[in-house]
Amino acid sequence: MPKNIKLMQGNEACVEGALYAGCRFFAGYPITPSSEIAETMAEKLPKLGGTFIQMEDEIASMAAVIGASMCGFKTLTATSGPGFSLKQENLGYACYVEVPCVIVNVQRGGPSTGAPTGPGQEDIMQARWGTHGDHSIIVVYPASVQECFNETVRAFNLAEKFRSPALVLTDEIVGHMREKLVIPEAGELEVVDRAKPTCSPEEYLPFDLSGGDIPPLAAYGEGYRFHVSGLDHREDGFPTMDPEMIRRQKERKMRKIYQNKKEIVKVEMIDLDDAEVGVIAFGATSRSAKLAVRLARQQGIRAGLLRLITIWPFADEEVYALASHADRLVVPEMNMGQLSLEVERAAQGKAKVDGIHRVDREPINPDQILKAIKGD
To answer: Given a cut of 90, is residue 3 above it in pLDDT?
Structure first.
């Protein structure tokens, strides 16, 4: 049987991945450079019996996604920098009440209005810490059109399995590039659905502490009547001031992600076994890094690439292992050094960290990375 091969934008591939994963609800507000996601969802979702809503703003879009997820739907919204900022309060609510949903942020230059049509990688720390309070989050970062599809599917799977929001970070380059996309047959990629309660509605506790770190999630409208609150809450979802209950709930919600890092963290390793200089890159910048590492090898320099496909939780162990035998780590990123500091923390002084920072709305090219590899 011939493969289902398309020529597609990264943004369009995110839509195809979401639909493959079972997404049937989208709420959003147009914003460059992510608008193609909303446009394509508006075209395709109704044909599959799904629902597309263009909301009045980004805050309402996030609220609608949360509400639809609580009714049992797999849900998606998409945005870029300024819109991502507006989503943060409701994103924090989703983290605390453990609502599975996926948010795509196609990054552009910032802050403020910044460069709507220019690339940036400046939302790395906002993706982790944009909302207030201690919370866990899952963030993946594809670097190709095919990965936009695959990693969107994986983001839905992680959101559903761990009962958590999951973010897909891309950038304007990845979102707008066109490449070959092979759409897998149904069943070829794993699709995960959230765990549903097996107890009676009378026995159901939405934040149960007794059955493991990820309580099953009932859907409104299926006979389960339960309370959900963004306040510190008991197992039944109602507010509490009990310090012990607050501690146990918060620790569980962090633990469910960070004790499963081996399942969540995903990286690509190229020529790392004997690398004296390691390049740590992600997204569009990693494409330049691959060529730079290959050119360095041709010139007799033992360079290698650690490509981060999961950004958060951070690949601490992989970075430390590389730092333990490399002399230097080069971190190219289209910002002023957001991930470089995280690499320094994970390397624990084992290797020198050199950042390449570019914020002029031009991509970091292979020559810049090769120069840094050489130490010029």
So the answer is: no
In angstroms, what CA-CA distances link 131 with 69, 136, 247? Answer: 20, 11, 19
CA distances in angstroms from 202 to 151, 215, 279, 296, listed in the order given: 38, 16, 55, 64
CA–centroid distance for 99 within its chain:
15
Band of the pLDDT at 2, cuts 50, 70, 90? low
Locate all alpha helices (DSSP H) within 122-227, ordered by sequence: 124-129, 145-162, 172-176
User: Can you read off the two tokens belonging to residue 219?
Assistant: 């859907």
pLDDT of residue 276: 97
12: helix, strand or coil: helix
The token duo for 28 is 């959003």
Closest by alpha carbon to 73, among 194, 189, 168, 190? 194
The two three-digit tokens of residue 189, written as one number:
């990629």
List beta partners, residue 264.
Answer: none
Q: What is the SS3 assignment for 279-304?
A: EEECHHHHHHHHHHHHHHHHCCCCEE
Please state, in angstroms and rounded to a whole number, the distance separating the CA atoms of residues 169 and 56: 23
Question: 32 with 117: CB under 8 angstroms?
Answer: yes
- Per the listing, tokens 């009990």 go with 242
Find tokens 């945005």 and name the residue: 79
* Residue partners of 82: CB distance under 8 A and separation at least 6: 31, 58, 110, 112, 113, 114
The one-letter amino acid at 268: E
Closest listed residue to residue 329, CA positions, set 308, 303, 298: 303
* Residues forming beta bridges with residue 75, ordered by sequence position: 25
pTM, whole model, 2 decimals?
A: 0.96
